Amino acid sequence: MKITVVTTLPEKEWRRFVEEHPAGNIFHTPEMFQVFSRTKGHQPELWAAVGDDGHVLALLLPVQITLLSGLVSYFTTRSVAYGSVLCAPGPEGQEALAVLLRTYKRQAKGNSLFTELRNLSDLTGIQSTLQGSGFIHEGHLNFLIDIGLPVDKVWGNIHKSTRKKIKRARKKNQLEVIEVHNHSQVTTCYSMFQESYAAANVPLADRSLFEAVLDVLYPKGMAKFLLGQVEDTYVAALAALLYKDVMYGWYLGFDRAYSSYLPNDLLVWYILEWGAKNGYRIFDFGGAGKPDEDYGPRRFKAKFGGTLVNYGRNICIHAPVRLKLSQAGYQLARRFL
Fold first, then answer.
1. Which segments of 84-222 are extended strands (E)?
2. What is the pTM for the complete model shown?
3. Could you tell me the residue ranges of all domains in the chain?
4. pLDDT digit string, tens, across residues 286-329
5. Starting from the edge strand earliest in sequence, which strands make up the sheet with 85-87, in order?
6. Which of 15, 237, 286, 335 stands 20 to 30 A from 49 (CA)?
7. Cα–Cα separations (whole angstroms), residue 323 to 105, 110, 130, 260
8. Terminal CA-to-CA distance of the chain, rounded, Å?
9. CA pair distance 264, 162, nearest whole angstrom
10. Confidence band (pLDDT; 50, 70, 90) for 333?
């Protein structure tokens, strides 16, 4: 069979492939592509391998990210495939994936420092193809919480000490959870995310990302924003993405001055309970760091009783010298700024 690599697809065929594929996730959807298209500093790309009949055999959707403009962008631009790759089952799909990745590497070289595939499912079966195409595997952890259970079972799987704290906080009834539905509230959510990311010295995407999610995903029931409020003050925010029977814990932020109210714990439990009651099967906690690093958010996420998995990431470096210079500069910036 002849395999052709294309950079556009009929939306109907694109959507069919993602919806029918067992590993298809929200980051593979046309809707998420639209979101990134509307986001400042983000340029999504579509790469697909198709057969003679026009059906998709492999799919790659990297997003080129440039958070700094000018000459600095040459040392900071990277590409991230947030949902990793998809390929049809069997040898034909893997052959198509290999052709796709080889073509992508030839044409993408020089545009980004590297391309990172963030694996949201177990890709052991295609690792030989990925690594043979120059995408080296690195360990990266995540927690998956089974919410396809009765609510009391989901509650019972949370660590006992955390359940006690949540019960005490709910009994005090000091935190009100509000569901977000307008741009003004999204702006408030963004300020919460900014505070948490600044405290961790990690760059945050532009606000336009969250505004695009509200405009594109929210009307289709593919996103949910929550705000935690104490009296007249917003103190925490959570953003989740929804697709098929999976909820993705995407962003979480809070005002540290209100940590005694346990806003993060309460918002996470709220979304878990809502998901369990509304037919969702899995809550994907959005990453738990590298296995060999002491990662604070991992300790927080572990409290909710999920299964720790190591699907990892696959990375292809396009510009090794520039990447080393970039990494050195980033570490200096984190240290001094």
1. 85-87, 114-118, 136-138, 142-146, 175-179
2. 0.93
3. 4-140+312-336, 143-309
4. 999 999 998 989 999 999 999 999 999 999 998 766 666 555 54
5. 4-6, 47-50, 56-60, 85-87
6. 286
7. 16, 11, 21, 41
8. 55
9. 12
10. very low
Structural contact between residues 269 and 158, judged by C-beta atoms closer than 8 angstroms:
yes
On the question of pLDDT at 337 being above 50, the answer is no
Q: What is the pLDDT of residue 201?
A: 85
Residues 6+ apart with CB under 8 A from 322: 74, 75, 113
Question: Phi and psi at residue 33, in whole multiples of 5°?
Answer: -60, -45
Same CATH topology for 4-140+312-336 and 143-309: the answer is yes
CATH 3.40.630.30, domain 143-309, yes or no:
yes
Q: How far apart are CA 285 and CA 140, in angstroms?
A: 13
What is the C-alpha separation between 132 and 323, in angstroms, rounded?
A: 22
User: Can you say whether residue 59 is alpha, beta or left, with left for phi > 0 and alpha for psi between -120 and 50 degrees?
Assistant: beta
Q: Over the range 316-325, which residues count as b (16 or more CB within 10 Å of their CB) and which as e? A: bbbbeebbee
Average pLDDT over residues 82-91: 97
Superfamily of domain 4-140+312-336: Gcn5-related N-acetyltransferase (GNAT) (3.40.630.30)
**pLDDT tens digits along 185-198:** 999 999 999 999 99
Q: Which of 64, 81, 331 is nearest to 202 (CA)?
A: 331
Who's near 284: CB < 8 A, 6+ residues apart? 120, 142, 144, 246, 247, 248, 249
- Answer for the pair 123, 311: CB distance below 8 angstroms, yes or no: yes
Measured between alpha carbons, how far is 268 from 171 in angstroms, rounded to an integer?
Answer: 17
Sort 188 into a burial class: Cβ within 10 Å, 0-12 / 13-18 / 19+: middle
